[in-house]
Design brief:
By secondary structure, the protein is mainly α. It has one domain: Up-down Bundle (Na+/H+ antiporter like fold). It contains 20 helices and no strands. Helix 2 packs antiparallel against helix 18, helix 6 crosses helix 15 and helix 7 packs across helix 11. It is globular and about 60 Å long. The C terminus is likely disordered. It catalyses: 2-dehydro-3-deoxy-D-gluconate(in) + H(+)(in) = 2-dehydro-3-deoxy-D-gluconate(out) + H(+)(out). Keywords: Cell membrane, Membrane, Sugar transport, Symport, Transmembrane, Transmembrane helix, Transport. One of its GO terms (molecular function) is 2-keto-3-deoxygluconate:proton symporter activity. It is a multi-pass membrane protein.
Length: 343
């Protein structure tokens, strides 16, 4: 039977194993949003199982991380976290003085507010970051998101905006976010054969996770937000991506991890409404901010894989340190040969 080079064709697209399934999921979600409910069962699960796939991804990726890499994870994750939040604070301070709490009422920037910009800047798309690092980075770069996950939720946005309330994260949420990765790390460090077994699954899961992620994106949000939403999404990639690139290089990375973190998380779209519920002064801004942040989620989910793939091509693939940080027998399996071809 004549073979069709599907995989080779996908890999010709920058970040293809992430971008192509993601766009496919987004197109189906936009044009036929009831597809998961219509088919249900296993087909429906492919559309709605992003968190489940991500949980398994965490375990498998964790298995490929050596305990010796923990200081690196703290340094890398802490640096990227600090830079991303610092940029959000800077934007909040500058725009807060110019705009205050209310959105711009007229002109080409109508609807733009301090709340929208800070919410878009503050929260990194963790699933996107981990999938890209599984393809273009090192296993321990994936683990860095355990620190960056502190961005999730409205807390840091509230701090940035000076809003009172929600002074701490629920400990269950924090533990639940890192537990699969920790379990994987324990398994992989107790048994090298288990590490090798689980690490091989990482590159295979990327397109499935990407499709489920895309199925949660509604491309009409970009249309509703118009050019302003598109511009804000591009601004997130450029304004946060450049400092994150250099911050990553300062921690010994190639810059790829920094660029992969220059996105807006899907749950960030819910932050404006939560902020408004905590402080009614933001009620008017939240109406527009929700749409703008949702557009940023879509725009950055498409742009970041492309820019990350281009950056990986320019700076080259990262090299694991076999003796100090990783087991050379499993490091290639964690990244995957296909990833190097795309990079």
């Amino acid at each position: 039977m004549k073979q069709i080079p599907i995989k080779r064709g996908i890999e010709r697209v920058p970040g293809g194993m992430m971008v192509v399934p993601l766009l496919l999921g987004a197109v189906i979600a936009t044009l036929a949003p009831n597809t998961p409910k219509f088919f249900g069962s296993f087909t429906g699960a492919l559309f709605t199982g992003a968190l489940t796939i991500l949980a398994v991804f965490y375990v498998c990726m964790g298995a490929s991380i050596d305990f010796k890499a923990t200081p690196y994870i703290i340094k890398k994750g802490g640096t990227l976290f600090a830079v991303k939040i610092a940029l959000g604070v800077a934007a909040g301070v500058v725009l807060g003085r110019l705009l205050g709490e209310a959105p711009i009422e007229a002109g080409m920037f109508a609807g733009l507010s301090t709340l929208a910009v800070v919410a878009a800047f503050n929260d990194t798309n963790g699933g996107l970051y981990m999938a890209l690092m599984g393809q273009y980075g090192k296993p321990r770069d994936v683990g860095a998101y355990t620190i960056m996950s502190l961005e999730s939720g409205p807390f840091l946005t509230m701090v940035t905006l000076g809003v009172a309330g929600l002074s701490a994260f629920p400990w269950q949420t924090l533990v639940g976010g890192i537990l699969p990765l920790v379990v994987g790390m324990i398994l992989g460090n107790l048994d090298r054969e288990m590490r090798d077994f689980l690490a091989k699954a990482v590159p295979v899961m990327i397109p499935f996770f990407a499709f489920a992620l895309g199925a949660g994106l509604d491309l009409t949000k970009v249309w509703q937000a118009g050019l302003l939403g598109l511009a804000l999404g591009v601004a997130v990639v450029v304004i946060t991506g450049i400092p994150l690139f250099f911050a990553d290089r300062l921690t010994g990375g190639t810059g790829v991890a920094g660029v992969a973190a220059a996105s807006t998380a899907g749950n960030a779209a819910a932050v404006p409404a939560i902020i408004a519920a905590s402080n009614p002064v933001y009620t008017e801004a939240a109406k527009h901010a929700t749409i703008l942040v949702a557009a940023c989620v879509v725009v950055t989910a498409i742009l970041v894989p492309l820019v990350t793939a281009w950056t990986a091509r320019m700076v080259g693939a990262p090299a694991e340190l076999p003796d100090e940080h990783a087991d050379p027998a499993v490091a290639p399996a964690a990244v995957g040969p296909a990833a190097h071809k795309e990079a």
